[in-house]
């Protein structure tokens, strides 16, 4: 997988070893939680689940495919969906 080329379509994300990561700065805490809730729905649909660290209104998200020991298409698919959700909420 050409990770750098996939990342060029996802400027908010950066590679850290076997993961891609981004932060999401929500306008306030309730919005941050709504974003997490919408991500959770997508994660269940895809059976692919991000690591999420919630710090007040900032989310730290990390994606990898544990089952395959590295990054796969699913990580980039979910990353794009997370970007859509964040943008919709002004984050
Ligand atoms: C058995 C089941 O398919 C898994 O353990 C799934 C669930 N969610 C997952 N999420 C992520 N991010 N990586 C995985 O490898 C993964 N595996």
TrEMBL record:
Its EC number is 4.2.1.96. One of its GO terms (biological process) is tetrahydrobiopterin biosynthetic process. It catalyses: (4aS,6R)-4a-hydroxy-L-erythro-5,6,7,8-tetrahydrobiopterin = (6R)-L-erythro-6,7-dihydrobiopterin + H2O. SUPFAM superfamilies: PCD-like. It is an enzyme of class 4 (lyase). InterPro entries: PCD_sf, Pterin_deHydtase. One of its GO terms (molecular function) is 4-alpha-hydroxytetrahydrobiopterin dehydratase activity. This is Putative pterin-4-alpha-carbinolamine dehydratase. It comes from Nonomuraea terrae.
